[in-house]
């Protein structure tokens, strides 16, 4: 407890809290269509492929908007950038409340929901900006735990949709976003660190390196799998096991909460055991649990257990990967992490489409689980090959930090 108090005193803790709250609400709104998918699908009578498309657009849009928001934050400041984004989120929610009347309107709404998904890089940078280098990892981990917003979304949105109608939830979200805006205005301050003032070439530099692509592809499985599955699971539970729309959200919440909570643990265990070792176990666990999900399509209990284990591994993997980023790019951690986060998040759009197409053309969601498991195995093989050079150049055996 004393160590945690010392950590909070080493930086500006109100800004850390404001960044966490902002990221939590953003994640909650980002996956709103996924949380309400059973209600939306019933209204528009969507096919499995249409469901996958509807759920993938917010993820893809959010990933593509991260970089522009990061650039904006350099010109107007990170605190102001979060306020601009939250204002746009409120406008987007009002569009959903007043104008979503057809499937095409719903796709447009998906693009607007992507605004909320752009928050990752700015949130982490704002929250960790006032903390010294030795505590930035912890600060980033705490802000990153705002992924719990995905769990809150699938827990809260279905009961609201059932009580007031799913369109009304957009209007309630427009009101709710005022809370993190108020906290940001009153308690956050702009950090005075300078490592965010990087040019376009510096931002994309890691994409011209093999390591940058390796990290991005692994993150496409860990974070992409987390956000993609969290978005699709309410639909899967409702369609596959005929549970109620509210129960589908509650079951998804169990898994999403586990993934968000284990992100901090993944970073902590990687500091002691090594990020490469942790990611090896993570990817093997993800592949195994997804294959078991494919085999357990007739059992709700077995599927739920495997999904929770899978999300625990995905959450730990997100923390483990970002333990390695500052070791590989010590002088450009923020910009490398931002670009890896953007490219990796695009992987989340693959999951709903893969699941929807598997159901529509192969007749079973099981093949979607198998496809994503194969991708995890490919990333595991790549990791084991790449780590040979990593542990000879910038990391100790297993992916631990090198001694001074």
Q: Give the DSSP E fraction (strand runs of 2 or more residues).
A: under 5%
Largest sheet: none
CATH superfamily caption? MFS general substrate transporter like domains
- The tally of structural domains comes to 1
Structural class: mainly alpha
CATH fold-level label: Growth Hormone, Chain: A
Share of helix among residues? over 70%
Secondary-structure element sequence? HHHHHHHHHHHHHHHHHHHH
> Over all CA atoms, what is the radius of gyration?
20 Å
Note the gap between the termini.
28 Å
Ranges where pLDDT stays below 50 over 5 or more residues in a row are none
Number of strands: 0
Q: Helix count, per DSSP? A: 20
> At CATH's second level, what is the architecture?
Up-down Bundle
Determine and state the CATH class: Mainly Alpha
Mean pLDDT: 91
Q: What general outline do the C-alpha atoms trace? A: globular
């Amino acid at each position: 407890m004393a160590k945690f108090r010392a950590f909070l005193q080493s930086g500006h803790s109100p800004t850390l809290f404001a960044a966490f709250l902002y990221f939590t609400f953003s994640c909650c709104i980002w996956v709103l269509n996924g949380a309400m998918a059973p209600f939306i699908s019933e209204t528009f009578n969507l096919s499995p492929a249409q469901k996958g498309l509807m759920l993938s657009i917010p993820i893809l849009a959010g990933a593509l908007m991260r970089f522009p928001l990061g650039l904006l934050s350099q010109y107007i400041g990170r605190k102001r950038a979060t306020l601009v984004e939250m204002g746009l989120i409120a406008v987007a929610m009002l569009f959903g409340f007043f104008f979503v009347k057809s499937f095409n309107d719903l796709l447009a709404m998906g693009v607007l929901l992507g605004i909320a998904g752009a928050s990752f890089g700015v949130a982490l940078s704002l929250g960790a900006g006032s903390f010294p280098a030795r505590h930035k990892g912890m600060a980033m981990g705490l802000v990153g735990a705002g992924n719990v917003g995905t769990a809150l979304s699938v827990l809260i949105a279905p009961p609201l949709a059932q009580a007031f109608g799913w369109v009304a939830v957009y209007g309630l979200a427009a009101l709710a976003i005022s809370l993190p805006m108020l906290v940001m205005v009153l308690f956050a301050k702009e950090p005075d660190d300078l490592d965010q003032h990087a040019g376009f070439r510096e931002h994309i530099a890691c994409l011209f390196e093999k390591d940058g692509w390796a990290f991005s592809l692994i993150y496409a499985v860990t974070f992409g799998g987390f956000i993609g599955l969290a978005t699709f699971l309410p639909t899967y539970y409702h369609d596959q096991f005929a549970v109620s729309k509210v129960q589908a959200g509650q079951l998804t919440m169990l898994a999403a909460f586990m993934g968000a909570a284990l992100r901090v643990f993944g970073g902590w265990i990687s500091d002691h055991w090594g990020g490469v070792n942790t990611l090896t176990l993570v990817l093997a666990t993800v592949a195994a649990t997804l294959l078991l999900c494919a085999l357990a399509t007739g059992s709700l209990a077995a599927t739920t257990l495997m999904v929770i284990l899978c999300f625990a591994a995905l959450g730990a993997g997100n923390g483990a990967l970002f333990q390695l980023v500052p070791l590989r790019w010590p002088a450009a951690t923020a910009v490398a992490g931002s670009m890896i986060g953007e490219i990796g998040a695009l992987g989340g759009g693959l999951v709903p489409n893969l699941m929807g197409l598997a159901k529509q053309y192969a007749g079973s969601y099981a093949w979607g689980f198998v496809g994503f498991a194969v991708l995890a195995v490919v990333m595991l093989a790549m990791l084991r090959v790449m780590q040979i050079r990593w542990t000879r150049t910038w990391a100790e055996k297993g992916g631990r930090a090198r001694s001074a």
